[in-house]
């Protein structure tokens, strides 16, 4: 009887263990099922986020740089493969990783490394970039409001389109212009006697600054090819810093405005840097304007909005025209 009772107890214990396992299996299955659903949902959300980021990046690149995706591919990467088995699969992985990278990354260089790098660059003869001060701010009454910026951008774009159509049609008068490398001849063509006075650092003769954009400037810029437009704009930007550190002569502003109307987008990096320099120069001058009636203020704001909003060199002004398709 003792042995029979012991066997019966063992059978009861085994039965209880089986019952417990039976109760735990449905719960485990439910947890696993829920985990699978959550994983699938997360993957689906991640895929949608990646597509949104990818689409946003493509629109951003097209609007700011005028470039499209060179080799479009569709679908998600096949991560079951250790290595890509085709060029398309490789591109899918590249696009997937690129969509998760921030558009702008700022790397802080330690002071010791920066100093060492500067000494090495100086010894090797390479140019060392100087420390650039932030763009000067101005009081609110000196800044153009959103509606003014939008109206100017629309007018400037219309002017650019008219000039482009006129250049394609070829119906404008042919004007003899100096060779692009003849700096002195271009100074005379742009500023006449005022150029020589500007170089010597003495005040320009009376009447050297005109009150409006003359037909002479228009006819000269219409005769230029794009490389010549770029070269002349870079020269004017450089001269603005060298000869007019504390001013913006009206004639100089007119030439910068007229040449910018002929610049093609997307801008070459050198052109973007020159536009940024013009923006910085004008903002510095605007920061010291003391009253709204100063005749210098309108021409400063024209060049600031032209460079900052239309050519996207100022982050704040870019937000005003973010919804405008600029060409």
UniProtKB/TrEMBL annotation:
Classification via Pfam families: SIP1 (PF04938)
Show the GO cellular component annotation of the record.
nucleus; SMN complex
Q: Where is the composition biased (Low complexity)?
A: 8-18
InterPro entries named in the record:
Gemin2/Brr1
The alphabetized list of GO BP terms reads: spliceosomal snRNP assembly
Disordered: region residues:
1-30
Coiled-coil portions: none
Record family assignment: Belongs to the gemin-2 family.
**Name of the protein in its database record:** Gem-associated protein 2
